[in-house]
Amino acid sequence: MIPDFAQQVLNDSGFYKDALVLLIAIILAKAAPLPREAQAFVWFSHLAKQLAQKVNHVQRSSQQQTIAGTLALILIVVPFWLIISFLLDLSAFPWFFDIVLLYICLCDEHFNRVAEEVQHALEDQDNSRAKKILAPWSYRDTHELSSVGIAKATIEKMMATPIYGSVATILFFSVGGTALVLGARMVKQVEYCWPKVNPQYQHFGKASYYLCYLLYFIPTVLWNFTLAIQGGPKAIRLLFQVKPSQYPVNNHLKTCQLFAQILNIELAGPMKLEGKRVAIEKVGNGALPTANDIGKAIKLTRFTTLIWISTLVTIPAIWALLRYFA
Question: What is the radius of gyration, based on Cα positions, of the chain?
Fold first, then answer.
């Protein structure tokens, strides 16, 4: 029995190895993150913004801006993705480079720590420090935010981070390996640099916006479902309520509604982007968020993420048991 089981484990070694690679990458990203200025996707963001400055001309027609944005997206993503994927296929130890690239793609996984720093700054009534901490992580203007605005921006960033972080990484790596994770993450970073909600990128950012919507549709639905089962019947019903948005909300309206429902707070609302006020609908009927609500959001996000990470241990363990007793 034992020799047969050992042979079965060897036959399924690729399955267990992939689960271990994912687990190591996620743990490293959460426990030992790189400084933000040293992260590869921060450099990639600078490149995307510089490219947009060169080719995004708002005085042109909407069609021309859309075409320019589509070509710019292809130009900045495809060459880097092809080169890295090709080198990955040639590597002598692909599992090592899988861990490294997944670790790089999970660079925002430690935002909970940043949120804690923002929370402590708000509790100390030090709004200036809270804005300084949040500014590198937000595409909106933070210098004029009130304490409520800071809390909203922090919670909204935190609620979406696991979608393109842990959840998408687990799903995409299982389906298409590291190359798919890397390509999707690059597209997401471009979409973050050219947010369609910003009037400057309203047309230029269409391609990245809709491509992100397609790529992250399933991860978003699954993340929302994992949230809803913790919020009770009202949150679950909210999953099936279709409420079209009259404003662009970067694909996260339902997630925002769920967080607002579970935490009983108000989220979203108008924001400033590069000095311009942008209308965004408010979500939720609760009180305005405070520093204490950031702490609640951190707990909710951590527990929900833990559910996903636990699958990397439980599924291989269940599979091994089934193989053993088969």
Answer: 21
Name 55's bridge partners.
Answer: none
CA-based max dimension of the chain: 73
Distance CA 100, CA 87 (A): 13
Look at strands 282-283 and 276-278 and give their pairing. unpaired
Nearest to 231 by CA among 267, 255, 253: 255
Per-residue model confidence as pLDDT tens digits over 247-257? 655 568 888 88
How far is 176 from 217, CA to CA, in rounded Å? 16
The amino acid present at 215, given as its one-letter code, is L
Q: Which two tokens stand for residue 75?
A: 């130009």
Judge whether 305 and 129 are in contact, CB under 8 Å. Answer: no
Q: Which two tokens stand for residue 249?
A: 């909300």
Q: Which residues, 6+ apart, have CB-to-CB distance to 274 below 8 Å?
A: 141, 198, 200
Measured CA angle at 267 (ends 261, 270), to 5 deg: 150
- DSSP states of 192-203: HHS-TTSGGGTT
Residue 83 CB partners (closer than 8 Å, separation 6+): none
Q: What is the pTM of this model?
A: 0.89
54-79 tens-digit pLDDT: 999 989 999 999 999 999 999 999 99
pLDDT digits (tens, 9 = 90+) for 13-54: 566 788 889 999 999 998 888 888 888 999 999 999 999 999
**What does each C-alpha distance from 1 to 6, 14, 87, 326 come to in angstroms?**
9, 22, 42, 10
Give, in order, the Cα–Cα distances in Å from 136 to each of 21, 90, 125, 219. Answer: 29, 35, 20, 25
How many Å apart are CA 179 and CA 89, to the nearest integer?
Answer: 10
